[in-house]
Amino acid sequence: MEEAQAEKSKEKVNVKRLLITIAIVLVTALVVGGVTWYYMDKNAKDLKEANDKEIQALEKQITILKKAETTGNNNTAASNQTQPSVPPATVVNNFLTSYLEYLNSNNNGQGAAGYVGTHASAPITSTFKTSVTTGLKYADPIILAQNTPDPNNAFTVGTVTVAGNSANVPVTLNFIESPSHIVYGLVVDGNEWKINSVKSAN
User: Fold this and answer.
1) Among the listed residues 188, 123, 103, 201, the one whose alpha carbon sits nearest the alpha carbon of residue 157
2) Domain ranges, ordered by start, for the chain
3) Among the four residues 6, 34, 58, 100, which has the most C-beta atoms within 10 Å?
4) Topology at the third CATH level for domain 88-200
């Protein structure tokens, strides 16, 4: 009988040990699972954050490239604009040569107004034409002088400055008494340079 009781006690102890072992296994499994889930979740969040930062960096780079492309296209379009075939210096040179020949010929004293009235193809804007016909009364409104330059060496054209669709052409008029300096302002009108203004540079 004592042996039966001992056997029962031994069985109870074994059951307790088994239950404790199962409990330990379950707790360990829960702990390991929890830790694993925590690190997996943390890694997923870190990976998502890294991906978001990379996406933002790429989007920023794309924006920069688009701006650069737009700027490049604008610059290319500007550089591809067809410039007039006759440069500003040549326009002024030909115009003054023609005008001074007119002044030195028998023009019945009509001067600048007579010239623009009879030379419809002259390279001048409507603004300049108006200033010529309604401008200076005491001096020639095209060369800003009362006399004509020396016919043997009437004028010289200086260094031209061009900015986009406008240009300044300095000219020295060689009068017998002393030279006079003026600047013609030109603009692109249609597909050619035209004189739009004149001012003294003395």
Assistant:
1) 201
2) 1-81, 88-200
3) 100
4) Nuclear Transport Factor 2; Chain: A, (3.10.450)
The C-alpha atoms of residue 121 and residue 192 are separated, in whole angstroms, by: 12
106: alpha, beta or left? (left if phi > 0; alpha if psi -120 to 50): beta
Per-residue pLDDT of the chain (202 residues; tens, 9 = 90+): 656 565 666 666 677 777 888 888 888 878 777 777 777 777 778 888 888 888 888 888 888 888 887 766 555 454 455 789 999 999 999 999 999 999 888 666 678 888 988 888 999 999 999 988 887 677 889 999 988 898 888 999 999 999 999 999 999 999 988 999 999 999 999 899 999 999 999 8
Q: Among positive and negative, which fits the CA dihedral 5, 8, 10, 12?
A: negative
